[in-house]
Design a protein that fits this description.
heterotrimer; A mainly alpha (about 325); B alpha/beta (about 325); C alpha+beta (about 450); A: about 325 residues; mainly alpha; 13 helices; C: about 450 residues; 4-stranded antiparallel beta sheet; 14 helices; 11 strands; globular
Chain lengths: ~325, ~325, ~450
């Protein structure tokens, strides 16, 4: 049992490192963070609505970019390993296949959760900057942009001086610097005075970000399970369709006539992404933590089923 | 053997650079050599010595950092040069979902060979590599040795003047190795120029006219294989049969008095390769069916004999 | 050509073998057969027609777009990573032939799938029901209309005159500069022209592209808003004539605001005319003021061919668009390694779709920093503006002609110009790229 946990842990670490070293991860992350940081400037001409617009757009960006990231890394990671024989090499060691699969998922989950954490910080900071009409509160986007620039400088320097991989070093630096920027921002209120920590931060957004992180986790699991059976492009296309269906789930399945068995079954299979998009509640009383817990439980059940299906498919697979 | 240079490399250097454009690895440094028409030229060296990099520059897949390189009198990236070159890569770079026949069909089409001629050549090549019976199977199901054979067939489909073989015997069993070497010798006799790389010394020794030994990207030695291997300070006398003891004593005494030193005596041994081949050959004669790969036949007839007058297209 | 076809053949093989084609067929079948079952329209047969075309065909096209983009991105990138290109590139093949071969292979798959979808959707259309419903239904099935916009009225001169008058009268404050005032006056003129107060009338000039046949029926299509709250119908009178003979045909109308309305007009009296005037007289007893939508408040619809011809036009348009997207993917794959290529292709596709929406208002006063930030986006927008997708499926579904101008734009600019530029870029990158780079 101990060995199993250690093996899974090692595999997960390796997968996460491998994923983070792919240029795609840092490309998507940096682009999403930079765009979020600049949103307050880009959406100037909406007067008092701009905080809401920035918040909703940042959350939407988090959602979509995260899903692309999860699906792309899941499909490419597993397929690439199966193709170039690394999977076969690992599985020739005494590593049970379910552990290999779980390790892959855990590693990818770690990467998407890290991405979500970064985006949650960025969303809060960008919303802060846009919160007061006709005024940029630079304690929001300012530290975020500084963190981005510093992380890139750090990654570049590490690569230049010590030949370390740029992508993973920069990602690692972001994981330190973005929380640091958020912590720093929390120290000041909008009048540049030191206040009780968090006074200037719209922390009520956090539950919404967590819900989105759960959705990303779910679709990553879906993509990974599909990648056991399908090649990269078909897996990507099917994942995208699942994503679209999930977004429209309420619309499509909401009006199903009860006798349509096939559709009810499909309704059961497709995750309902509406559960994860609680931005409307943010405009009202905020999102209760009990709701977040319920959605987390939904996600956990779903993932359990998905991973089981994935493991079964993976066990029956022939490796070359 | 004509004196026309098929490959001319002068001061060939390849640096791999990092993101900041700083040289990271000097894979090949100041390598100069010439390969004449009809020669079998061997690139010898341990793993990572720059053999593959040199070959990939010859094929236009990598661009030299410095130095000049002419293949068949042209830039290696020139399509006209490529139409007269055949290349067997180190590993199988074939499409796994095509059958053996489709694979050859595909590469044949890339050379604009007329359909009828293409069909003849494919049939002959499949016959030659002993895979006629497997021509409808997809390459993905093939064993490594079978894939190498298909690789060889695709390299010869255009009846090339220059054949570049990257580790030609890797992945082949001893019979396959022997056949490959025989084929190289036969092709050379037909006037083809062959450049091969290997780290298996026996391969090179058996077939090459000249070799160049690379280490760390630099030329360590080069020249005709005879010259390189000959030990001029010692002489070996081969006798066709056993001598009786008295005659032997007389011979040895004569040698001893002439040289003033004691000669060494031993019986010639087969090398393991030769022995192995004999054993297998005997076994094969007893059972008609060989596993996996059929028996290779003579060289495909379309591969033209010496033709030094062929004009450049 | 033989080389290109051979490479295309490989691309097709690889698409089939990677199960992409099977997956697509399954998903396309769901889109074509499944979607119309799940989405209930408004119950009318026209509604069903609309849903079948816009949703099924739209979803099928979206799937194909995504798949061809990604398959394109992987086709070369994957071949470089798996090193098959090292064999291909040592044959006497130009790099341009590799690019074109890959593109062609995927387009053959695309064309086959799109045609299959188009035919299946065509067969599933509620044709018999439409025909059976009424005689007019049968006619409507084959009645495709071309929508003619009124002539643009040049208000620049009038605006300048007004500006001079108002300046002279001191109605414009001193600190407002001429260009700002002129813009405001132009806006005002546009709104005034679109507004019809009770008892007043509004006249549009329309030039027909061809003369009408006496047995044809044309339609007036319009949409207005009212000053009154609610959706009470407004009474008015439509008059069609020529500049020489203002009243040739007229009819009273009573129509609900906010939705598109159309009135059939027999072309008998209008035959052989090309310059028409259309006048609306507001005769509402309740005294409601109307505002016609300045963009598409009024259109004259004239018959333009059969449904089948129009449907074919839409399919051709979609196919050309797929050609552009595939080119985008293949070029991304020639430049980047696989996951980055996938993402770049996707991002570029999204950006090209935003061309329909991205119209930032640059006229609002800006600080220097926002000018700096928006400068590149302005350039990008200029490059993107021809990349929008004309609403071909919506047009087919509502019986409007897929305009020749759309087809020309997609074929000329997107397919030939942008597609050609992508091909040139992809070829250039393939030429420059060292295809046997070791991983160091």
């Amino acid at each position: 049992m101990q060995l199993a946990i250690r093996q899974t842990y090692t595999l997960a670490g390796l997968t996460a490192l491998e994923a983070v070293r792919q240029p795609i991860v840092i490309l998507l992350t940096a682009a999403a963070l930079a765009f979020t940081a600049l949103m307050p400037i880009l959406f100037t001409h909406t007067l008092d609505e701009s905080a809401r617009l920035v918040r909703d757009s940042a959350l939407a960006l988090h959602f979509v970019t995260g899903l692309i990231l999860g699906v792309l890394t899941a499909c490419t990671a597993l397929r690439a390993e199966l193709r170039n024989g690394t999977a076969a090499a690992v599985l020739s060691k005494p590593v049970p296949r379910p552990l290999f699969f779980l390790g892959k998922f855990a590693g990818l989950a770690a990467v998407t959760l890290a991405f979500s954490a970064l985006m949650a910080g960025a969303t809060i900071l960008a919303t802060r900057t846009a919160r007061i009409p006709f005024f940029y509160d630079w304690w929001g986007s300012g530290p975020l942009l500084a963190a981005l620039v510093l992380a890139f400088a750090f990654g570049g320097l590490q690569n230049f001086r010590a030949n370390r991989p740029f992508a993973s070093r920069t990602f690692g630096a972001l994981l330190v610097l973005v929380p640091a920027a958020t912590a720093l921002s929390g120290l000041f209120d909008e009048h540049d005075h030191i206040a009780k920590w968090g006074a200037g931060l719209p922390l009520e957004i956090l539950p919404a970000s967590i819900l989105i992180a759960l959705a990303i986790l779910l679709l990553t699991g879906f993509a990974l399970a599909l990648a056991t059976r399908l090649d990269t492009v078909p897996a990507l296309v099917v994942s995208s369709v699942i994503f679209m269906l999930g977004l429209m789930a309420d619309y499509i399945f909401g009006r199903i006539t009860p006798h349509n068995r096939a559709l009810s079954a499909l309704d059961g299979i497709v995750p309902n992404f509406q559960h994860f998009w609680a931005v409307d509640a943010l405009a009202g009383d905020g999102i209760p933590w009990t709701y977040v817990a319920r959605v987390a439980a939904y996600t956990a059940c779903y993932l359990l089923a998905l991973l089981t299906a994935g493991i079964i498919a993976f066990r029956q697979m022939e490796l070359r | 053997m004509s004196e026309e240079a098929i490959i001319q490399a002068d001061g060939l250097t390849k640096h791999f650079r990092d993101f900041w454009r700083r040289p990271k690895v000097a894979a090949v440094q100041e390598v100069s050599f010439e390969v004449k028409r009809g020669e079998v030229f061997g690139l010898l060296g341990p793993n990572g010595s720059g053999k593959s990099t040199t070959i990939k520059m010859l094929l236009g897949l990598l661009h030299p950092t410095r130095g000049t390189l002419r293949v068949l009198g042209r830039d290696p990236r020139d399509v006209r040069a490529k139409s007269r070159v055949g290349y067997l890569p180190e590993e199988s770079y074939l499409y796994p979902y095509l059958t053996a026949e489709e694979t050859l069909e595909f590469y044949g089409k890339l050379f604009d060979i007329a359909p009828a001629e293409r069909r003849t050549r494919i049939a002959q090549l499949l016959e030659m590599i002993g895979l006629s019976h497997a021509r409808r199977r997809t390459v993905g199901e093939f064993s490594k040795g079978m894939m190498r054979r298909i690789g060889l067939a695709q390299a010869l489909i255009n009846d090339p003047d220059l054949i570049i073989l990257d580790e030609p015997t890797s992945g082949l069993d001893p019979i396959g190795c022997r056949q490959m070497k025989d084929l190289i010798v036969t092709l050379a006799k037909r006037g083809k120029t062959i450049l091969l790389s290997s780290h298996l010394l026996a391969d090179v020794e058996d077939v090459c006219d000249r070799v160049m030994i690379l280490y760390n990207g630099k030329v360590q030695a080069s020249g005709p294989i005879q010259d390189l291997l000959e030990v001029r300070t010692r002489t070996r006398v081969w006798l066709p049969s056993e001598l009786d003891a008295a005659t032997m004593r007389r011979v040895l005494d004569a040698v001893r008095s002439a040289l003033g030193a004691e000669p060494e005596l031993d019986h010639p041994r087969k090398d393991l390769e030769q022995f192995f081949l004999e054993v297998v050959e005997r076994a094969r004669r007893e059972t008609t069916e060989a596993s996996g790969v059929g028996v290779a036949s003579a060289v495909a007839p379309f591969l033209s004999a010496t033709d030094t007058t062929k004009p450049a297209p | 050509m033989r080389r290109i076809l051979a490479i295309a053949n490989i691309a097709i093989h690889s698409a089939v073998r990677s199960r992409m084609v099977v997956c697509l067929i399954a998903l396309l079948a769901i889109a074509v057969i499944g979607l119309p079952l799940t989405i209930k329209g408004d119950g009318t047969i026209e509604g069903q027609l609309r849903i079948t075309i816009t949703y099924s065909l739209g979803a099928a096209f979206a799937l194909l777009a995504l798949a061809s983009l990604w398959a394109g991105a992987l086709s070369i990138a994957r071949e470089i990573e798996d090193k098959q290109i090292q064999l291909l590139a040592t044959k006497p093949v130009r790099r341009a032939e590799i690019w074109i071969g890959k593109w062609l292979g995927l387009m053959i798959v695309n064309t086959a799938l799109l045609l299959a979808v188009a035919i299946a959707t065509g067969l599933l259309l509620p044709r018999e029901k439409l025909a059976a419903q009424t005689k007019e239904g049968a006619a409507a099935w084959n009645a495709v209309h071309r929508s003619i916009a009124p002539l643009n009225e040049d208000r620049a001169d009038e605006a300048r005159t007004q500006l001079a008058q108002r300046r002279a009268a001191g109605q414009i404050p001193e600190n407002v500069d001429d260009s700002t005032a002129l813009r405001a006056i132009q806006q005002e003129l546009i709104v005034r022209a679109a507004t019809v107060a009770p008892g007043q009338q509004r006249t549009w000039q329309i030039q027909l592209p061809r003369v009408l046949q006496p047995d044809e029926t044309i339609r007036l299509r319009f949409r207005y808003s009212t000053s009154a709250m609610g959706l009470d119908a407004v009474r008015g009178r439509w008059i069609i004539g020529t500049p020489a003979q203002p009243v040739i045909w007229q009819a009273s109308s009573e129509n609900t605001p906010e939705i598109y309305q159309s009135i059939a007009v027999p072309a008998k009296a209008l035959a052989n005319e090309r310059d028409l005037t259309v006048t609306f007289v507001n005769e509402d007893p309740a005294g409601t003021t109307l505002v016609f939508n300045p963009q598409d408040g009024l259109r004259l619809l004239i018959p333009a061919g059969t449904f089948l011809a129009n449907y074919t036009r839409a399919i051709v348009l979609l196919l050309l668009r797929l050609g552009f997207l595939t080119a985008l993917g293949v070029t991304a794959g020639a430049i980047f390694s696989s996951p980055v290529a996938l993402f770049v292709a996707l991002a570029l596709m999204f950006i090209s779709y935003t061309a329909d929406y991205a119209t930032l208002d640059y006229d609002t006063p800006q600080s220097r920093i926002t000018t700096l930030i928006t400068a590149p986006s302005r350039l990008i927008q200029m490059a993107l503006s021809p990349l929008g997708t004309p609403p071909a499926l919506e047009a087919v579904a509502s019986g409007l002609q897929v305009e020749t101008a759309w087809l020309l734009r997609i074929a000329g600019i997107q397919f030939l110009l942008y597609g050609g530029a992508l091909a040139a870029l992809g070829t250039r990158m393939l030429n420059r790229r060292e295809l046997a780079m070791p991983a160091i």
